[in-house]
Amino acid sequence: MDLSTLKREDVKAVEDGLAQVLAETIADYEARSGKTLQPAHIERLIINTYAYREHLARKAFNEAYRQQHPRFATGLMLDLCGDDVNTPRLEASAARCTIRFTAALSGTQTVHIPIGTQVAAGEAVFATVEAATLSAAVRQADLQAVCTQSGAIGNGWSAGQISNLLTAFSDGLEVKAANLTVPAGGADVESDEAYRKRILLAPESFSVAGPVGAYEYFARRVNPAICDVYVDNKKTASGEPIGGQVQVTVLIKNGLPSEELMREVAHSLSHERVRPLCDTVTVAAPAAVDYALDAELVLFTGTNPAEAVAAAEAAWAAYEAGRREQLGRDIVPLDIQTALKVAGVYNVVLHRLPLTVVKPDQWARCTSVRIRAASQQTEG
C-alpha cells in the first residue's frame, strides 16, 4: 500500500461515525430495557445527546491517534515526532548577500571594515560576517552579509539597493557600500508541510549522504527557504552518469537560490560526517524553463466577464501555488485549461503555449499572466 496516498480521515483507532454511534447506543438501551424506542420517546432525546458527546470524544481519540504519526501530526506534536529521529524544526533564517565596500585611499591610508558593519536598504539591515582592510593598493572588498532580521524582509533587494552605510568610520574617510548579489534565503519558521517532508526523510540520514534521500535530507536542513531538492550524478556530454560526481539541484520558495545559499548548502554537504569519502558534490540552481500564460476565456451567454476572469485568476493562483515550489513539473496545456475552466466558462483557448516536458533538475517559471474574456459568448 502506498501510504503517501492515505487520507487523514481514513486513519482511525475507533469508528467515529455519528450514525453508527447512535445506532449502537439505541440497540444497547433496547437490549437492556426490553423496550423498543420510537423517535418521539423521551429516552431518544437523552440518547441523542449522549451519542453526540460520544461521537465528539471518539473523533478526539482518533485525532490524538493521528497526531502520533508524522504523516498527520501538526504543531507541537510534529515537533515531538521530529525529536524521535533527531530532526528539529528549522528556525527562521535571515537573507544573505555579498556587499562590496570601496574607498578612495591614497598613501598610507587604510580603513578596517570589521565584522558586524551594517548596511541598510529601507528597514532591512545587513551586517557583515567577514572583515577586510582597504588601502591604496586594495580599494574594494566583497564581504558576505546577513540580514539582522529573520524572515522574508531581507529577500529580493536589487543589486545596488543595499547601500545605506550605518556604521561610521574614523578619520572622516568616505567608504561606500552596495550589494552585488540579490539577497535570498530569508524564511519564516519551517512550516508543518516542509518539516513533515524532512522527518519522513530522516531515516535516510542514518547513513552518510550516499543514498539520494540522504543528500536530500542534509540539503533541506540547511535553510527553511529550501522547498525542493533533486539529487543525481553529473553527466558527460553524451548524458552518461559520472561515478562519484554528485550534483544537487536546489530550489527555494522565492525561486532560484542565491550564490551565498548554494555555497552554504555545498559546505553542509561536504562535511566529513555527511559526504562519502569518494564523492565530489556540486550544488547548482535549477535551469528555469520560462513560459507565459495567455489565456482567452470563451464564456456561456449571460456570464459576467469580470466575475469569470476574476474566478479564473484565483484558480490560476491556486494552481500555480502548488507548482512554483517543485522541480520537474511539466507544462501541460490540458491541466492549465482544466484549472481555468471555472463556472461560466465554455472553453479555454491558450495562445503560444505548447506541451513542454521539464527535466527533474529544471524549474517551470511563469513569467507573465494574461487572462481575458473572449469578445463573443456561446450558448454551448
TrEMBL record:
Q: Domain Baseplate protein J-like barrel spans what residues? A: 99-186
Give every Baseplate J-like central domain span.
208-285
Where does the Baseplate J-like C-terminal domain start and stop, copy by copy? 291-371
Q: Pfam families under this entry?
A: Baseplate_J, Baseplate_J_C, Baseplate_J_M
Give the source's domain of life in one word. Answer: Bacteria
| Cross-referenced InterPro entries | Barrel_Baseplate_J-like (IPR006949), Baseplate_assembly_J_pred (IPR014507), Baseplate_J-like_C (IPR058530), Baseplate_J_M (IPR058531), Phage_Baseplate_Hub (IPR052726)
**Protein name according to UniProt:** Baseplate J-like family protein
Q: Which organism is it from?
A: Neisseria musculi
Q: What is the lineage of its organism?
A: Bacteria, Pseudomonadati, Pseudomonadota, Betaproteobacteria, Neisseriales
